């Protein structure tokens, strides 16, 4: 497969990928649906008339919207037809765009000239806790090796309902929160800026069609409701969380901000990189069982760039394939009560850690609760994040002569607000 658009082998956005996003430009501040190809964005609002297949011909207006929600709600037949149309008109042997300079001039925008926005209207956000290495690490720190995993962990995808209003697109600064902490266990709590600010390496998926309240989504059909994936940094105030989380779990420590990458990579683009699911022992309940592969070889990196520095120090190299619970299991479990999931809902993996120290997905693990420093290069080190630090998460799947990537998920940590 080859496009008439020149794409280098190390570019995240070849014709095999074609992720969706929402963008605007200085000349046109309205939000448009775009598809990334190389260093360009194809504006689907300009070429909506070209989606004239049996499914999309009656739904061309979805490409004129300011979010992906209407398109995602159409389901797999529409998604496949759109991908087929895009790959056809972007191929080097199709004249539709290649030989129409006027249409090309209107349809393509340099990524460098675009401002990216949240890809969907996110009504609800759920964060799971599905990495066994991460859960084991954290449990070992606080409860010891013998009690690292809670009794329920291998029986269900544990999760909590997060705050959708503070999900932001890559590039949005995140402010260090103020809150209650208890630095010394034998003294009363104190109020002030978080001291143990952390990142969490995660991925998340956007829901396509939803379900009616009272009708669970079967694990066998869950893939029909999963549109695509993004990178995520679920910022975490560790000291605030330690004091507040008993008995109801994360609250203020997690509602300060969650950053996602702007490009949504579809499940069809990821399909060539599927790998065996994690072997689960004990076998989960039947409503969580599926034999088809739904885990992916996605290489992930996290870097920290100190304020005023050009150097990005890589602190973590992990992989999505380490996940214990699959996305299908997460969605089936989420809805087993009859909970209604809606188009645009965001469901996250939880921190992704691998079995080796370099693959740990948070500073909490990398510094082992602050007991050691993490080298970020140029003579600098960290235990937790400092004001001005920029956290950069990247991810991609490696194909033969091309990569299917997600771009980057970037956020800079600002100082806490003074409340005096």
Mean pLDDT: 98
DSSP E strands, number: 26
Number of helices: 9
Distance between the termini: 60 Å
Query: Could you say which overall geometry the principal axes of the C-alpha atoms support?
Result: globular
Structural class: alpha+beta
Q: Which bin fits the share of residues in helices?
A: 10-25%
**Rg from Cα:** 22 Å
Query: How would you characterize the largest beta sheet?
Result: 8 strands, mixed
Beta-strand content estimate: 25-35%
Indicate the low-confidence ranges by residue numbers.
none
Note the quaternary state here.
Answer: single chain
Kindly list the characteristics that best describe this protein.
8-stranded mixed beta sheet, 16% helix, 420 residues
Describe this structure in words.
The chain has 420 residues and is of the alpha+beta class. The chain contains 9 helices and 26 strands. The strands form 7 sheets. Strands 6, 7, 8, 13, 14, 16, 17 and 22 form an 8-stranded mixed β-sheet that branches. The chain has a 5-stranded antiparallel β-sheet with strand order 4-3-2-1-5. Strands 9-26-25-20-21 form a 5-stranded mixed β-sheet, with no helix packed on it. A hairpin with an 8-residue loop joins strand 10 and strand 11. The longest helix is centred in the first third of the chain and has 15 residues. The protein is globular, with a radius of gyration of 22 Å. The mean pLDDT is 98.
List strands and helices in order, with pairings.
Blueprint: E1 20-25, E2 32-37, E3 40-43, H1 69-72, H2 76-90, H3 95-98, H4 101-107, E4 108-110, E5 114-117, E6 125-128, H5 132-143, E7 159-161, E8 167-169, E9 174-175, E10 178-181, E11 190-193, E12 197-198, E13 201-207, E14 226-234, E15 236-237, H6 238-244, E16 258-260, E17 265-266, H7 267-270, E18 274-275, E19 295-296, E20 299-305, E21 313-319, H8 327-335, E22 346-348, H9 363-366, E23 374-377, E24 380-382, E25 390-398, E26 403-414
Parallel strand pairs: 6-22, 8-16, 9-26
Antiparallel strand pairs: 1-2, 1-5, 2-3, 3-4, 6-7, 10-11, 12-15, 13-14, 13-22, 14-16, 14-17, 18-19, 20-21, 20-25, 23-24, 25-26
């Amino acid at each position: 497969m080859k496009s008439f658009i020149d794409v280098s082998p190390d570019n995240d956005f070849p014709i095999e990928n074609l992720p969706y996003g929402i963008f605007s430009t200085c000349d046109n501040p309205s939000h448009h649906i775009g598809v990334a190809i190389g260093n360009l964005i194809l504006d689907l609002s300009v070429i909506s008339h070209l989606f004239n297949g049996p499914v999309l011909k009656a739904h061309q207006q979805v490409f004129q919207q300011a979010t992906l929600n209407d398109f995602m709600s159409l389901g797999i037949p529409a998604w496949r037809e759109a991908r087929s149309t895009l790959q056809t008109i972007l191929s080097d042997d199709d004249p539709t765009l290649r030989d129409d300079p006027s249409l090309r001039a209107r349809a393509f925008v340099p990524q460098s000239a675009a401002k990216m926005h949240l890809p969907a209207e996110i009504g609800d956000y759920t964060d799971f806790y599905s990495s066994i290495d991460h859960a084991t690490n954290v449990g070992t720190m606080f409860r010891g090796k013998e009690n690292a995993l809670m009794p329920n962990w291998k029986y269900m995808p544990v999760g909590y309902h997060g705050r959708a209003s503070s999900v932001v697109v890559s590039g949005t600064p995140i402010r260090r929160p103020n809150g209650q902490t208890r630095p010394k266990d034998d003294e009363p709590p104190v109020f002030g800026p978080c001291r143990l600010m952390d990142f969490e390496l995660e991925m998340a998926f956007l829901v396509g069609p939803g379900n009616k309240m009272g009708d669970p989504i079967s694990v066998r059909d869950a893939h029909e409701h999963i549109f695509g994936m993004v990178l995520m940094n679920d910022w975490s105030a560790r000291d605030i969380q330690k004091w507040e989380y008993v008995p109801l779990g994360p609250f203020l420590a997690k509602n300060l901000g969650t950053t996602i990458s702007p490009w949504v990579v579809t499940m069809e683009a990821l399909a060539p990189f599927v790998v065996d699911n994690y072997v689960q022992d004990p076998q989960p309940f039947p409503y969580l069982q599926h034999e088809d592969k739904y885990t992916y070889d996605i290489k992930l990196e996290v870097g920290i760039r100190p304020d005023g520095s050009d150097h990005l120090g890589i602190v973590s190299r992990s992989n999505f394939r380490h996940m214990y619970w699959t996305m299908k299991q997460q969605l089936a479990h989420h809805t087993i009560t009859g909970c209604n999931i809606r188009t645009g809902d965001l469901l996250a993996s939880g921190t992704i850690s691998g079995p080796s120290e370099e693959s740990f997905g948070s500073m909490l693990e990398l510094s082992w609760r602050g007991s050691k420093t993490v080298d970020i290069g140029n003579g600098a080190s960290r235990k937790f994040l400092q004001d001005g630090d920029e956290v950069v998460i990247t991810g991609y799947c490696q194909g033969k002569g091309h990569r299917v990537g997600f771009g980057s998920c970037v956020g800079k940590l600002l100082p806490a607000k003074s409340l005096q």
